[in-house]
Write a structure and sequence with these properties.
This protein is mostly beta strands. The protein has one domain. It contains no helices and 10 strands. The chain is elongated, with a radius of gyration of 19 Å. It starts with a strand and ends with a strand.
Length: 102
């Protein structure tokens, strides 16, 4: 059994026991429920939402958070002496999927 959820403007295919990194949630520790479920597959049964499956949810446990690897943004203009270097680390939340309910 697996589900496709939407969080942080991205879609994730998850099943029970998966550990995924999603955009930063406002939760530090404990449980979290994803209610934006786009599709659920249980063997031969496929259930697609329009846009979301009614009454479906995915339960998850928040394991922690952190920051991703640094991305360097470097800008320059040729022959002008203009150089600008900037770094960015995107925050994320790591969650473990504990259950899928319809």
């Amino acid at each position: 059994m697996y589900a496709i959820i939407e969080t942080g403007g991205k879609q994730f295919k998850v099943s029970e026991g998966d550990v995924i990194k999603v955009e930063k949630l406002g939760v530090t520790e404990g449980s979290f429920t994803f209610d934006k479920v786009l599709a659920i597959a249980d063997g031969e049964n496929l259930n697609f939402g329009a846009p979301y499956v009614a009454g479906a949810s995915v339960e998850a446990t928040v394991l922690g958070g952190g920051k991703a690897k640094k991305v360097i943004v470097y800008k320059y203009k040729s022959k002008k002496g203009f150089h600008k270097k900037k770094g960015h680390r995107q925050p994320y939340t790591e969650v473990e999927i504990s259950g899928i309910s319809v």
